[in-house]
Here is the input.
Amino acid sequence: MIRVLFVCTGNTCRSPMAEAILKNKKIDHMEIKSAGIYAVDGSEASYQVKEVLSEKGILFEHSSSLLNKELVDWATYIFTMTNTHKSRIANDFPRAIEKTFTIKEFADNNKYGELMDPFGGSVSQYRETYAELELLIEKIVDKLEK
Here is the structure.
């Protein structure tokens, strides 16, 4: 079983969107979760995320989770949205660094690339983030399936 954990800041925008995209692929041997470095447990996904996922026909219930040792230990792979998220995990959970990558680092071998944060932006900005995540996740699935 491959266990994928997506991590962003508040676990209300990018990481739940990534979680929903990958879960929607319905890959039997993958479990997917998301969390946030500074999340408040129990928050819903932003209304923009809900809108974009609805437009794509993805049904997704979300309740935010603060990143913790249990989630880090559970994960086979941890994909962060930025290098700052990755650095925070390296500082807080040093044993996890070998399984932690920025999403662009793993998908595109781009160590410095980061996923734009649409927080507080328009639905249109969230659509752009969705499109980028969809492409990156497709590349991640291809690599994990090899």
User: Anything to note?
Assistant: The helical segments are 14-24, 47-55, 69-74, 83-92, 103-108, 123-145.
